[in-house]
Design brief:
The complex is a heterotrimer of chains A (737), B (220) and C (79). By secondary structure, chain A is α+β, with helices and mostly antiparallel strands. Helix content of chain A is 35%, strand content 23%. Chain A has 25 helices and 28 strands. The chains are: A alpha+beta (737), B alpha/beta (220), C alpha+beta (79).
């Protein structure tokens, strides 16, 4: 492919660089870049690779702690889980590709995040995801749901890693910009973590995995641009994943690492060979020389440009210790992978590429990484919603109808249609997942009594109503879900999904949401160890709800002491830990029953969040409680209904406040937990002694979901509504592949 | 007691089977790469594990059934060694013609992962004697192509000869006669879609998989 | 020499994909479409220039790998 007959400056714009960014390149090189060099700059400086709009604000996150081995800056975060073991995890977005081609976009999202984890020496042991789709009535939504779910299942199931947790929301703001955030959690030994920085010059650079084709060229820049009307034409840039190749890659990579031959390693993700080679050399403060003629190629006559920018999947770049090339070759041959030594690290500090015997790129590495633009984009303080008093919110005209509306609404309805398509049990260590009903997915740490708990959280409507408070809530809820399962929350990974950062009001959402999240992280000792930013999630100026999603990971020291909410028994007392003022602002009751999206989100009191969570975790650890559920969307009504359905036992709720019953029942006050116990007295006493609010909220028994004379719904009917929405909605969809 | 688990490129449940067998029976388990042309001696059980051998490309189990090691597996089966094919392993046994019929795409066209209640239709096989007359078992399934098919004459013969070992109480995939697992005429080669390798400890939801492995290894 | 193999489920074997596709076509405005079957096409280059010999080679490939003759039939076109 020869360079187009237009000026390089024009080409730069086509590549997604702003004119001022092009000028920076010319100044740094002291000359104009050539076509290949321009391609390299354009991807390294894309929003997706450089985080230029967000880096300044991301710096506010706490990223260290006694258990943190590696914070942001590597392929994934690493935390210590004791006994010489580490947990490696990260969440990443694949939003724009999934909108264009939902199956492959989602599938390659899963593939990419797995590589970020096993490139650090960790065997992947769990997957999770956070999905946001448009209004169910939008013509594209159903097909997107079907494709994304099939893609996540198709890839994850084939690779043999269980998908054990997730979150799925529907809202019209995602109509033209769905969100697919994929998490991978892996297990490694603390003394066998692999990093990406090249340790020195004159070391062999080895490429292994699948051959390079023309897939996804400029995918990184697509992720950095809004969708225009021409989204359909972007289809050829979507990469196709091969989960079988990935499975072989995992086994080969782990085997290679076990031989001690690997000095540094990185997967080829966004911007493929370019980002991996530049980052590995840049971090190691060395140069790198690649002979592109050696790159295994799937297509004929590939140009240097195409090879450097290709986003063909399932490829790794490793720097080996001297003389270990033969060890590596044997392993690649056993697993049937394409592989080649394609270059060496050097002392020059430059990226030098040769192709067909000629030098086609020769640039200093500094400008690419250290001199990447860092923007302080202008932002305005976001407008925030005013607090809503429950006295000012009408109670339901028809209580039963309101409860059923809530239980059957897209955000609350059972997502069984989705998670039954995921293998949740492969690796034979899954203890809790959606079917068993717990607030976190839980997998055993193989061969030990320990288990890891995983929860994905974000309440975008709260963030929209007040980005700072909503940001606090995101982190608090993840922490709460882990605590409700009986785990010690260790750390977070984040996926910050927002609209166009060049708009000051969007940049304000980003800045303030991060402020809120950071404050909660500090108060809860819950650092961010990895993450991803996805911006420009807008179509024709309509941005998504601000969606700073997180996934929290926690440790359960003995998995015999854990909690879920399917174990409520006839006669159990129901206790609510925490204070209920009746916070209905930005609640699901308001939105689904009253059709309103106003009101300030429920405030988060981080001190009580912590004290209540520690209290509940203590009850679980001592064996006094094994049935617990956090209160979130839909408040007590939804939490109690979910517990009743999962346990198949009826519930009689008794609101403590006779006046604003709807506030108590539907309010989404934070920092609260629902506990079912046969022996409430000691718990009430202990809470009182600790200065915490715990109230009796009802009793388990019978076969109805009921509250006094407000409503009485047979459990079977509740189940019918809760389980019925999604299959009925998806029945209209054609099968995927 | 000694067992072998065959590992094909793309097998996922090989280590699960090893763990399940070790923990439920204490047997010595060896992992055998598909490229081997010899099996370890003195085997009491050979397991073809679940997963996506060769990515399920072309047909599930098609390419795996032609692996070098399969000639030895067939020979061992001929000699009467117990062979258990689980999920993808069942698909491989059918492709290798060690069992009749084939596994088609689930009737719903979707992958399904859920707990299933099974009827133990024949409690006298080497694989089910250990259930001591129990008629019920509970395990999980996880598959996209578990829809068992054979022509009517074959199905009648399987029923008549007691070769249907497990049947679904509630058919999750459209399998003919709700068949979840079958055994060959001789009774030493079994194929099943549900996963005993995921049901061997109480915290996993069921220990019926432990009974399964204990049964076949006790029968050796 | 180029060869094309069409692999189909045998009549009598339920074609779940074919049924689903047929339903979808009916729903999209082609209600009279019938007997939809979904199969597989494999193309390959086989050595040799004698069409009959190549056909025989490819049929052997079908018997051995490309089709599961318990449930599938096949058709080979050469050239």
């Amino acid at each position: 492919m020869s360079p187009p007959a237009k000026s390089l400056a024009e080409t730069a714009v086509e590549f997604g660089l702003k004119p001022e960014e092009y000028q920076i390149i010319v100044r740094r090189l002291n000359r104009e870049p050539n076509f290949v060099e321009l391609g390299v700059f354009s991807v390294m400086w894309s929003e997706h690779c450089s985080y230029k709009s967000s880096r300044k604000h991301l710096a506010k996150f706490p990223t260290t702690g006694p258990r943190v081995i590696q914070g942001p800056g590597e392929n994934a975060g690493v935390v210590d889980i004791g006994d010489g073991q580490a947990c490696v995890f990260k969440m990443e977005s694949h939003n724009h590709p999934s909108f264009i081609e939902p199956y492959q976009g989602a599938a390659t999202g899963v593939g990419g995040i797995m590589r970020d984890v096993f490139t650090m020496g960790a065997r992947p042991i769990a997957l999770a995801n956070a999905l946001r789709f448009g209004d169910p009535g939008h013509p594209k939504t159903r097909r997107l749901v079907a494709g994304v779910v099939a893609g996540i299942g198709g890839y994850g199931n084939c690779v043999g890693v269980p998908t054990i947790a997730g979150e799925t929301n529907f809202h019209h703001s995602y109509d033209g910009n769905i969100l697919v955030n994929a998490l991978c959690v892996g297990l490694a030994d603390t003394d066998k973590i692999f990093y990406s920085a090249a340790p020195g010059p004159n070391l062999p650079v080895v490429y292994f995995g699948s051959k390079t084709g023309r897939d996804g060229i400029h995918g990184a820049t697509m992720a950095s641009a809004e969708f225009g009307e021409d989204a359909e034409e972007k289809r050829p840039t979507v990469q196709v994943g091969d989960p079988f190749a990935e499975k072989l890659l995992i086994e080969a990579t782990l085997e290679l690492m076990a031989t001690g031959a690997v000095a540094a390693i990185q997967d080829m993700g966004a911007a493929g060979l370019t980002s991996s080679s530049v980052e590995m050399a840049g971090k190691g403060d060395v140069g790198i020389e690649l002979d592109l003629d050696c790159v295994p190629q799937r297509e004929e006559d590939m140009s240097a440009y195409e090879m450097m920018l290709s986003e063909s999947q399932e490829r790794m770049l490793a720097i080996l210790k001297p003389g270990r090339e033969e060890d590596a070759r044997r392993i690649f041959e056993k697993w049937g992978l394409d592989a080649a030594v394609i270059g060496r690290t050097t002392e020059t500090g430059r990226l030098v590429l040769t192709h067909g015997g000629a030098v086609v790129c020769d640039i200093p590495l500094g400008p690419l990484t250290q001199d990447a633009p860092l923007y302080d984009r202008p932002w305005v303080e976001p407008a925030v919603q005013a607090h809503l008093d429950p006295a000012d919110v009408p109670p339901p005209a028809d209580w039963s109808a309101a409860v059923l509306t809530l239980m059957g609404c897209p955000d609350v309805a059972s997502k069984r249609w989705i998670w039954e398509q995921y293998d949740r049990h492969v690796m034979a260590d899954t203890l809790e997942e959606p079917a068993t009903a717990a607030d976190a997915g839980i997998v055993r740490v193989h061969g030990t009594r320990k288990a890891l708990a995983i929860a994905c959280d974000c309440t975008p409507r709260y963030v929209a109503a007040n980005p700072f408070e909503g940001g606090k809530q995101v982190v608090a809820e993840a922490w709460r879900n882990l605590s409700a399962a009986g785990a010690d929350p260790i750390a977070l990974t984040d996926n910050l999904n927002f609209g166009n950062p060049e708009r000051p009001e969007i940049m304000g959402q980003i800045a303030r949401a991060i402020d809120g999240m950071a404050e909660a992280c500090r108060a809860l000792d819950f650092p961010v160890v990895s993450g991803n930013v996805s911006l420009y999630n807008e179509t024709a100026g309509q941005a998504i709800l601000p969606t700073p999603a997180v996934a929290g990971v926690g440790l359960i020291p003995d998995y015999a002491r854990r909690a879920g909410f399917a174990s409520m028994r006839d006669g159990d007392a129901l206790l609510v830990v925490g204070t209920s003022h009746g916070e209905l602002g930005a609640s699901l009751y308001l939105r689904e029953v009253l059709g309103r999206e106003d009101g300030a989100p429920p405030p988060v009191d981080l001190e009580f969040e912590r004290r209540n969570g520690d209290f509940v975790r203590g009850l679980i650890r001592s064996g006094q409680v094994s049935t617990a559920h956090d209160l979130s969307d839909g408040g007590l009504i939804v939490a109690a209904a979910e517990m009743a359905l999962a346990s198949n036992v009826g519930v009689e709720l008794s609101p403590t406040s006779a006046t604003h019953a709807h506030g108590f029942l539907f309010g989404e006050d934070q920092g609260r937990y629902l506990i079912a116990t046969a022996d409430p007295a000691p718990i009430l006493a202990a809470a009182h002694a600790a200065g915490l609010n715990v109230a009796l909220a009802g009793q388990a028994g019978g076969s109805d979901f009921a509250c006094h004379d407000l409503f009485r719904i047979p459990l079977a009917r509740l189940r019918e509504i809760h389980e019925g929405w999604m299959p009925a909605y998806m029945a209209g969809s054609a099968p995927v592949s | 007691m000694k067992a072998a688990v065959i590992v094909f490129p793309g097998s996922n449940c090989d280590r699960d089977c090893k763990t399940a067998i070790e923990r439920s029976t204490g047997a010595n388990v060896e992992m055998v790469w598909h490229g081997e042309t010899e099996l370890p001696g003195g085997l009491d059980l050979i397991v073809l594990p679940g997963g996506f051998s060769y990515g399920d490309y072309l047909r599930c189990g098609a390419m795996a059934s032609l692996s070098p090691v399969m000639a030895e597996v067939c020979a061992a089966a001929e000699r009467g060694v117990a062979v258990a094919g689980i999920c993808n392993g069942f698909q491989i046994l059918c492709e290798a013609r060690l069992l009749p019929g084939a596994l088609l795409r689930n009737a719903s066209l979707q992958y399904v992962c859920k707990p299933v209640d099974l009827e133990i239709a024949n409690g006298q096989t080497r694989f089910t004697a250990g259930f001591r007359g129990r008629r019920e078992a509970r395990m999980t399934v996880g598959h996209g192509e578990g829809n068992y098919f054979a022509d009517e004459a074959t199905l009648d013969r399987l029923e008549g000869e007691g070769q249907v070992v497990f049947r679904y109480r509630s058919n999750p995939n459209g399998s003919a006669r709700s068949i979840a697992g079958i055994v060959n005429e001789r009774g030493n080669v079994l194929g099943m879609m549900p996963h005993p390798d995921r049901a061997f400890e109480p915290e996993l939801g069921s220990e019926d998989g432990a009974l399964f492995f204990q049964s076949v290894l006790a029968s050796a | 020499m180029k060869a094309t193999v069409h692999v189909f489920l045998k009549p009598g074997v339920l074609d779940v994909q074919g049924k689903a596709v047929e339903s979808a076509l009916h729903g999209l405005g082609w209600p009279k479409v019938a007997h939809v079957r979904v199969g597989r096409v494999i193309e390959l280059d086989a050595p040799g220039d004698d069409a009959a010999a190549v056909e025989s080679q490819v049929k052997a490939m079908c018997e051995r790998l490309l089709a599961n003759t318990v449930i599938e039939g096949y058709r080979v076109e050469v050239g």
